[in-house]
């Protein structure tokens, strides 16, 4: 999806708003002149945010509707 950068946009806010990782947002725009977040510039926001590594591919339990976003539960015991 294409998006026109607005004044004061930053990577973290754009990533959170569009449910993508900052890493995938950067990767989708790596060919643009840097810095790529320039007011008025059209950038690409990936619409299918997949984990970049195989370690995250086992995370299918409670995050089915969050497309690559993990939630932190301080009460959950780690599993190894």
Automatic annotation (TrEMBL):
Domain LysM: 3-46
CDD domains recorded: LysM (cd00118)
SUPFAM superfamilies: LysM domain (SSF54106)
InterPro entries membership: LysM (IPR018392), LysM_dom_sf (IPR036779)
Composition skew (Low complexity), residue ranges: 53-65
Transmembrane segments: none
Stretch list, region Disordered: 40-80
Protein name as catalogued: LysM domain-containing protein
Organism: Apilactobacillus timberlakei
């Amino acid at each position: 999806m294409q998006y026109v950068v607005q004044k004061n946009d930053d990577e973290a806010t754009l990533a959170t708003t569009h449910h993508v990782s900052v890493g995938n947002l950067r990767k989708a725009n790596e060919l643009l002149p840097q810095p790529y977040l320039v007011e008025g510039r059209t950038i690409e926001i990936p619409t299918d945010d997949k984990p970049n590594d195989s370690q995250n591919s086992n995370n299918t339990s409670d995050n089915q509707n969050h497309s690559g976003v993990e939630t932190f539960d301080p009460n959950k015991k780690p599993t190894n």
